[in-house]
Amino acid sequence: MIVNRATSITLEHRKATISTPLSPCDFQELSLKYSLYPAFRDVVRELAGSLGLQGAATLFEGVCGRCGRCCSSLEAIADSDELFAMASHLGLSEDDFISRHTVPALTWNPGDRALARKDGACVFLTRLGQRDPGSPKYACAVHPVKPRRCAALAPALAACLKRPCDLVEHIEKIEFSGELMKVKLQGRGEYLLPLALAP
């Protein structure tokens, strides 16, 4: 395998693909599984961790760290037209949902409801596993149909906690070409802007 400045390396979840052009119309490609090369896997893990650490406010500004802080500090308000979808998602009638899980909201629309709170947080905030008691991850029990006001919250609030070990889960591919690196996140069709590689 010939490695030169035109070589591109694509890092994915379980493997790396190295492509080197041999001519304008021909190239040589090699795939490596991380499980067969533990030292290479460790280097990739370190790179991903470094991206998470340095890019929390830039690369990952649109990624939620699932810290649960917005659901604990802000009141969640559902517009009147969103209540039925949440009720159906939970297998409840709209009236049951409203009586069990909401309280009147202080908005101009009398049909709007605030989601109930339990222990200071939204009643639909659920803890994911017991992996790290000091800094757990959370999910929304009605995420697919959560209120538009919740969905509109930018995961870049001052209160957001984004740990590098959680952010790296969102990396789909890292591509190196020459002196540039491109990062593609899960669920995004395009690569983020190319980054200049540090020496």
Characterize the structure shown.
The protein has a six-stranded antiparallel beta sheet, with no helix packed on it. The protein is of the alpha+beta class. It has two domains: 8-62 and 165-196, no CATH class; 75-159, no CATH class. The relative contact order is 0.17. The protein contains six helices and 13 strands. The model has no long low-confidence stretch (mean pLDDT 82).
Main beta-sheet annotation: 6 strands, antiparallel
Shape: elongated
Radius of gyration, Cα only, in angstroms? 22 Å
Uncertain residue segments: none
> Any idea how many domains?
2
Strand content: 25-35%
Order of helices and strands: EEEHHEHHEEEEEEHHEEE
What is the residue-averaged pLDDT?
82
Looking across the biggest beta sheet, what order are the strands in? 3-2-1-11-12-13
Helix fraction, binned, reads 10-25%
Secondary-structure-based class equals: alpha+beta
Would you spell out the secondary-structure blueprint of this structure?
Layout: E1 8-11, E2 15-23, E3 26-33, H1 38-54, H2 69-73, E4 77-78, H3 83-89, H4 94-101, E5 102-104, E6 113-115, E7 117-118, E8 121-122, E9 125-128, E10 137-140, H5 148-151, H6 164-167, E11 171-177, E12 180-185, E13 195-196
Antiparallel strand pairs: 1-2, 1-11, 2-3, 4-6, 5-6, 7-8, 9-10, 11-12, 12-13
